[in-house]
Amino acid sequence: MIDQIPELYQASSTEGARRGISEDDMMDLSYPTLRKSLEPVESPISMMLMEDPSASAESDDLLDGSRRLSAINRLCSSLAPLSPFGRRQSQKLAGPPVSSDVDCHLASVVGDSESTLPCPSSVSPTPSPSPNFSPSSPTSPQSLPTLPNLEFKISSSELDPSQFQLEIPDRESVLLCARLCQFLRSNKNANPFDFDQNLRTCTGGIEIVKERFLTHSVGDTSIHVLVVSSEKLRQVFVCCSVDGDEQLAKKSLRYASSNELPGKGNIQALAAVVETSICSGLEERIFSELDRLDRPFFDIVFTGHSIGACISTLESARYADIHAELRISSQVFGCPRIGGDDLRAYVHALPNLRVFRVESGHDCTVQLPAGREWMSVGHCIQIGSNSECKAYRFDKVVIPKAKIMLRTPLEISRGKAEHKIDSYVGNLIKVEKWAKDYSCTHGKGVVVDNEKREMA
């Protein structure tokens, strides 16, 4: 290519004296490498079919000026900036579209080429960029508005309970809870407790493991909390027992008052239970020990007798409210009433909590405190004098104070005897047929004039 430059220069100098340098010769002198770059690249097959490649090369040297000029124009057109739509399509992933001022500036750089482009502002309107806009740096995408931190919680009610709330516990689990309460009551003066020997005899053949044991003092009252686990039942049992609960029950239930639950607004509960379990720090100790247990996929069962049953019921509700991912149960014996309608609605709104109260037919403590402002929570498993077992769904029996005051001395003494935990254990052992369904839930509907309805 470089060797051809002197030849072209000599030809132009000899003829230039007569008629001057032509436009084609000027292009060859100015752009010596341009013509070779415009030569078409032949395919291997066409080169094989060519009879005389040297003749083709000589014919290429004889290209006329108009043909070379058209090739130069095509090259200049290819060097011109792309159309606004094509350029934006190619830079769609690289950044935002370039402003119209930049397009006009690029279009004016073409020079002698006749394929210059019009200003894109006349083609499609583009919003004017900000003063700090830079074509080389893409702008940051617009930030989406942040949503508020919403917490959704599943709740239930007496009219629409969860399936877990309606599952009646089996007799084996309920009897084990009663025996644990009996064990703590009979060994309340033993220090330390002989768990290895006594627990094997009280569980009736069910192998359990002692996990934790706590002793908490509130004034003259001592509260014992035993935490055991059963691999067979896949459950963790939390048993609460109160020393001197008979005197505490007599004092707190006869002149009952209510206090607000901490952190629950207007929900009221029995004042003696709130002060003993929550305000004294017992709840924090129990929850801390349960959180440290290494028993995954185990259900947690709170149990207790008398005032210990009140503490277990209240703590089970508060623990189920904190841990919605766990299944919590409360299986208590001889439990008094611990709140009103607001506490009842709060307990029944927890779909992961089921509360079952085991009551003897003549136990009068379960009817205290008397009055329409006090209600029981959960379901009731009632054991009659003939060892008949019945389950009542969300029972709501209000005992007036006048009926409590009209009890005979025989009823009072019998009620005290059946309130003891030993009586509950004996009655559970005598039960032959355990309740599998709730009583008084299958109605006959509205019957007029003794009519009978048959399905077609």
TrEMBL record:
GO terms for biological process: lipid metabolic process. Residues 115-125, 133-147 have a biased composition (Low complexity). One of its GO terms (molecular function) is phospholipase A1 activity. Keywords: Hydrolase, Lipid metabolism. InterPro entries: AB_hydrolase_fold, Fungal_lipase-type, PLA. Coiled coil: none annotated. Residues 281-370 form the Fungal lipase-type domain. Residues 1-25, 114-147 are annotated as: Disordered. This is Fungal lipase-type domain-containing protein. It comes from Thalassiosira oceanica.
